[in-house]
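Fill in residues.
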């Protein structure tokens, strides 16, 4: 029998990709956050897992307030029900560095990461052995909301904003830990099948140099451009997560191949659309 997954925040980037990638493996129901609290507990008991992909903007940009914590509100409603909860956390709760493990020093800087860490602690205390916490690196993929394909990832958006001006900034030494959305969905799929719980870094687990990502994103560009040095005040956080715990749990081989394919697919869509303008 297929496991049943309730996804909250049906129009979000992550939700749209999860529904598309997992609908053949699981029974998926995606709803808006507002609709969740109209559901009766007997109905919720039909589901094995709940994943929240919605977020309050004040949670991102302001100091923690209980009223802005959507995940905690959901957790409180299901705390006495036999349902597992998947909390989407962030790599930003760590102190910036390399080979960061789940046990590495936590040092969130911005409101968003500080709030995620607060929620992690509250949900662990509330749900204890019914929660799966995923500390996600940088996802790259496409958002198909309303039939319009949008690019997701701050770095990728920044690249395309500059290429429109005919500029590519040189990034020979900078790197991040990127993960393609289809790899992310596969990770979720296996963790659910295994009924995994606890805290996991979700990442490619190695340095992904920006010059490589730029090369893939620029793959279908036929227009001229200038390569220039980054502004001196431009700050890039170089980091990568250790994903050995995840690999041991899932037995997956996570590599650059899918990331390269996703970047080139994004490149094809962007430059095809740009050509028409």
């Amino acid at each position: 029998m297929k496991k049943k997954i309730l996804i909250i925040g049906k129009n979000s980037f992550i939700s749209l990709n999860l529904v598309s990638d997992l609908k053949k493996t699981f029974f998926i129901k995606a709803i808006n956050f507002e609709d969740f609290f109209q559901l009766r507990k007997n109905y919720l008991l039909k589901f094995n897992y709940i994943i929240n992909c919605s977020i309050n903007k004040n949670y991102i940009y302001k100091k923690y307030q209980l009223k802005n914590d959507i995940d905690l509100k959901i957790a409180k409603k299901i705390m006495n029900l036999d349902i597992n909860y998947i909390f989407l956390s962030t790599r930003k709760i760590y102190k910036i560095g390399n080979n960061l493990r789940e046990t590495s020093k936590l040092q969130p800087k911005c409101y968003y990461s500080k709030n995620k860490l607060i929620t992690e602690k509250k949900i662990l205390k509330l749900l204890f052995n019914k929660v799966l916490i995923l500390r996600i690196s940088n996802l790259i993929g496409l958002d198909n909301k309303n039939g319009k394909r949008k690019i997701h990832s701050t770095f990728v958006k920044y690249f395309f904003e500059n290429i429109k001006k005919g500029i590519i900034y040189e990034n020979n030494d900078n790197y991040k830990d990127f993960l393609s959305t289809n790899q992310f969905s596969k990770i979720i799929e296996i963790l659910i099948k295994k009924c995994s719980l606890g805290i996991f870094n979700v990442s490619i687990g190695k340095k992904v140099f920006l010059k490589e990502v730029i090369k893939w994103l620029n793959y279908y560009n036929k227009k001229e451009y200038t390569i220039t040095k980054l502004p001196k005040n431009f700050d890039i956080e170089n980091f990568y997560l250790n994903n050995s715990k995840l690999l041991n749990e899932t037995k997956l081989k996570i590599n650059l191949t899918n990331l390269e394919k996703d970047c080139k697919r994004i490149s094809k869509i962007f430059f095809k659309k740009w050509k028409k303008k």
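The domain at 4-138+179-202 is CATH 3.40.50.720 (Rossmann fold).
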